[in-house]
């Protein structure tokens, strides 16, 4: 776990404690988040999860904005209860008033998509003969699941062709 990220989480908590004049329980911090999300706050578990790839690629902004964004969710939940809107007035108050940051709902980090493997299936009709299947769907076929063409209603059959995108 990067020390800078943990230090920033702690700094955000200290600012909130100073602002609200009360203590907050520290969350568990995990670096096990993949995909398009930079961070996630699990309110009932008092858990923060961060995306290590997006952290490495956007370190300065991530530490400043993303960490505060997720901590603000936990603080808002503990201050105002579970019925508030995720990016509502209470959360925005914390972002602006406590952290002095814009209450941006989403990040603008560039997301690098993984290369995908597609397995080509075919039906009998001439309209749209190729159906690229994901590895997951291809494995379901290997386990006995059948997929059908909506037009000609025949079972889609694997051609043996594999394409990397």
Automatic annotation (TrEMBL):
Q: Where are the transmembrane segments?
A: none
Instruction: Return one GO MF term.
Output: zinc ion binding
Residue limits of the SprT-like domain?
7-159
> Active site at which residues?
70
Q: Carries keyword Endoplasmic reticulum?
A: no
Location (main, coarse): cytoplasm
Q: Which cofactor does it need?
A: Zn(2+)
Would you tell me the Gene Ontology cellular component terms? cytoplasm
Signal in keyword set: no
Fetch the Pfam families from UniProt: SprT-like (PF10263), Zn_ribbon_SprT (PF17283)
Q: Which InterPro entries match?
A: SprT-like_domain (IPR006640), SprT_Zn_ribbon (IPR035240), Uncharacterised_SprT (IPR023483)
Q: Which UniProt keywords apply?
A: Cytoplasm, Metal-binding, Zinc
Name its GO BP terms in alphabetical order: response to stress
Q: Which residues bind Zn(2+)?
A: 69, 73
Q: How is the cofactor bound?
A: Binds 1 zinc ion.
Where would you find this protein in the cell?
Answer: Cytoplasm
Q: Which family does it belong to?
A: Belongs to the SprT family.
Name-wise, this protein is Protein SprT
Give the classification, highest ranks: Bacteria, Pseudomonadati, Pseudomonadota, Gammaproteobacteria, Pseudomonadales
């Amino acid at each position: 776990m990067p020390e800078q990220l943990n230090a920033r989480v702690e700094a955000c908590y200290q600012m909130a404690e100073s602002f609200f004049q009360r203590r907050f329980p520290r969350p568990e911090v995990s670096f096990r988040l993949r995909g398009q999300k930079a961070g996630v706050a699990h309110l009932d578990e008092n858990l923060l999860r961060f995306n290590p790839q997006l952290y490495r690629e956007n370190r300065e902004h991530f530490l400043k904005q993303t960490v505060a964004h997720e901590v603000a969710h936990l603080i808002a939940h503990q201050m105002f209860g579970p019925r508030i809107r995720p990016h509502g007035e209470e959360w925005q108050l914390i972002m602006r008033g406590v952290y002095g940051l814009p209450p941006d709902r989403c990040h603008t980090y560039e997301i690098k998509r993984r290369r995908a493997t597609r397995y080509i299936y075919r039906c009998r009709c001439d309209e749209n003969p190729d159906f690229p299947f994901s590895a997951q769907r291809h494995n379901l076929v290997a386990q006995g699941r059948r997929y059908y063409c909506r037009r000609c209603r025949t079972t889609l059959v694997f051609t043996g062709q594999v394409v990397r995108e």
